[in-house]
Amino acid sequence: MISRGIDIAAKGMMSLIDFQDSIANNIANVNTAGYKKEGLSFRNVYNALVEEPVERNNPKNHDGRLVGEISMGSVTHKLVHEFSQGTLSRTDNPLDLGIEGDGFFKLRAPDGTITYTRNGAFCINSQDMLTDMQGNLVLDEVNQPIRLNLTELNVASAKNLVVNEDGTIVAMRNENATALQRIGIFDFANKDEMMAVGTSMYVPKDITTNPEVRSQKFSVQQGAIELSNANVINEMINSINVSRNYETLSSFVKEKSNQLSQAITLGRLNV
Which residue intervals of 84-193 are DSSP H helices? Predict the structure, then answer.
């Protein structure tokens, strides 16, 4: 029973280390636009059946009755992200876009890799394409890159571009307005099966079982950036609680180790 207790506590300590790493990552990205905080889910290793002897004073009778179950410890099951709405911060930059509601912007890297993000800090590159700050192309609702040649559009600057709440880009020329492409806003039914692949970029773990869909409940806000939904105060409180729990388990392991050493010593003396 002593070694079993040490094993259970050790599994708990390993899970707490994973939890602390997740908290540290959240704190490091508390100022990262579009970042979604990490969390961990845990599972029991297994539950052992606990029995008591039917006749305690009769060691020859091995029959027992079921008392209940006891957990043999928990381990980290999987890393998940909480996709709750982050605060929209006004920047008044016409190419900064924030999503209020569900969905992601869709990006295509130069090598063709597709990712999804809530970080709408965009710019127009030297080829007149709308990109994020890493150079990934922003795609429209039909998966085409968005081209914004200000000279051809006959507008003075990006300030003459208006992005409607549905994502439609409109070029304003005096009193004339020309509708251009509509920025694609996509979503996923099971966000628990999303994983991070870079700075505020996410992809489904399996696109076949969790395919992208067109987002229905969203509003694109021009001149705003969605901030991280990680809260430094909450994360610090979580970190303190994890540290306390780790210290408790560490003390338990030390105590049980001493008991095991004493039991081994007594066993040797009795031989």
Answer: 150-153
Cα–Cα separations (whole angstroms), residue 65 to 22, 46, 47, 53, 55: 42, 20, 17, 7, 10
pLDDT, tens digit, 9 for 90 and up, residues 198-242 = 889 999 999 999 999 999 999 999 999 999 999 999 999 999 999
The whole-angstrom separation of Cα 218 and Cα 168 is 13
Angle between the N-to-C axes of helices 232-269 and 2-28, in degrees from 0 to 180, rounded to the nearest 10: 160
Report which residue type is found at 207. Answer: I
Q: What angle do CA 161, 167, 168 make, to 5 degrees?
A: 55
Q: CA 22 to CA 130: how far, in whole Å?
A: 33
Evaluate whether 153 touches 178 at the Cβ level (below 8 Å): yes
pLDDT in tens, 73-111: 666 677 889 999 999 999 999 999 999 999 999 999 999
pLDDT tier, 190 (very low <50, low <70, confident <90, very high otherwise) = very high
Q: Which of 51, 40, 150, 54 is nearest to 95 (CA)?
A: 150
**50/104 Cα distance (integer angstroms):** 49
Q: Which two tokens stand for residue 37?
A: 């905080």
> Which of 1-15, 28-42, 121-135, 179-193 is predicted with the least confidence, judged by mean pLDDT?
1-15
pTM comes to: 0.80
> What stretches of the chain show up as alpha helix (H) in DSSP?
2-28, 150-153, 232-269
Stated as kind and residue range, the H or E segment containing 117 is strand 114-117
Hey, which bits of the chain come out as E strands?
38-44, 47-53, 64-71, 74-81, 88-90, 97-101, 104-108, 114-117, 122-124, 130-132, 137-138, 161-163, 168-173, 176-182, 185-188, 194-198, 201-204, 212-214, 218-222, 224-226
